[in-house]
Design goal:
- The protein is of the alpha/beta class and 334 residues long.
- The chain is 40% helix and 21% strand.
- Strands 5, 6, 7, 8, 11, 12 and 13 form a 7-stranded mixed β-sheet that branches. It has a two-stranded antiparallel sheet with strand order 1-2. Strands 3-4 form a two-stranded antiparallel ribbon.
- The protein is rod-shaped.
- It holds the Pfam family HTH_1.
């Protein structure tokens, strides 16, 4: 619409100028389109044919435009119309407005095409052990997709979803503070690990109470791993053992390999270290503890076409991919 800033056009039939104020709610882009068609064709009938309108509709819109401007725009000459001096002065502004609209539509269409192909996946740090493989397998089926990946802790993942920086999340227990649509696609086992030379590494059966005196390494409060740690002892009515907090599973693994303590950790994060004999999984009552992996998105913000395809891919093909990565016991959906 025409900007409501003060604009001066010559008034037809008079030698004085006319001030246009607050016309934004009266003059429309559609009127500008009709106006240009009428000027170019010099006929309301031909303008109507070009625009798929009736001649009376064109005539009515030009009458409204003239009334809003307070100026005569066309003089009739038989079946044709001739633009007045005011109309001629208005033409470049109308062309600019219509062209700006076309550019805006083009930008929106281009952006929408990009958004339709965009898949922004955020995953908890533990999921880095399989998330990239899932995305790469999806890319093979959908090479046109614009895949973007980010990795964060649990709170960071939830914040990215809430802020609209991600379309889909890969994580364990779904958040409670926001409504999500979540699909379970694989089991997520947690185990207790130690250095291979730790005295408990050779034990056949370890009671929970035996672990209370031991030093532990833990993730930050609120993380899935920390929740497993605390639930394991609270469930048995035991006090939490002394623990040192670390900011990543990688640091925890390094500390355990340095024989600094024990740690609960996702079995999906230690496959290579176990194969290399650098870590041992302890035989503890109540372990492993099985959780689930989910692919999810905000309920209030459904994902776009490509992101929906990714969700369906993870639901359908994710279990088989996880079995291939981690074996039949720890890679299957429930």
């Amino acid at each position: 619409m025409i900007d409501s800033a003060r604009t001066v056009l010559p008034h037809a039939g008079k030698g004085e100028g006319m001030v246009l104020d607050d016309l934004g709610d009266k003059i429309t882009l559609r009127q500008m389109q009709i106006f240009l068609a009428a000027v170019e064709s010099r006929s309301f009938m031909r303008a109507a044919e070009r625009l798929g309108l009736t001649p009376p509709a064109v005539s009515m819109q030009m009458s409204k435009l003239s009334e809003s401007l307070g100026a005569t725009l066309f003089d009739k000459e038989g079946r044709s119309v001739q633009p007045t001096e005011v109309a001629t002065a208005l033409v470049p502004y109308a062309e600019r407005m219509v062209e700006t609209l076309k550019e805006a539509v083009h930008v929106v269409e281009a952006l929408q095409g990009r958004i339709d192909n965009q898949v922004r996946v955020v995953m908890v740090s533990t999921a880095r052990n399989f998330g990239p493989q899932l995305m790469q397998e999806f890319r093979k089926c959908h090479p046109e997709a614009d895949l973007q990946i980010s990795i964060d802790n649990r709170e960071g993942v939830i914040a990215a979803l809430e802020a609209g920086r991600a379309d889909v999340a890969l994580m364990g227990r779904p958040p409670k503070r926001v409504e999500v649509t979540a699909h379970q696609f694989a089991k997520h086992p947690y185990v207790l690990i130690s250095h291979p030379d730790h005295p408990l590494a050779r034990a056949k059966r370890i009671r929970r109470a035996d672990l209370v005196p031991m030093p532990f390494l833990v993730r930050e409060s609120g993380s899935g791993t920390r929740m497993v740690h605390e639930h394991f002892f609270h469930e048995a009515g035991l006090a939490l053992p002394r623990a040192q907090q670390m900011d990543s599973n990688a640091n925890i693994k390094q500390a355990v390999m340095g024989n600094m303590g024990l740690a609960f950790i996702s079995a999906h994060t230690i496959a290579l270290e176990r194969q290399a004999g650098k870590l041992s999984v302890l035989q503890v009552d109540g372990m492993p503890q099985i959780r689930d992996w989910y692919v999810l998105h905000l309920k209030r913000r459904p994902p776009g076409p490509a992101a929906r395809q990714f969700v369906e891919f993870v639901r359908a093909d994710g279990p088989a991919i996880m079995r291939g990565l981690f074996g039949p016991d720890f890679g299957a959906a429930a």
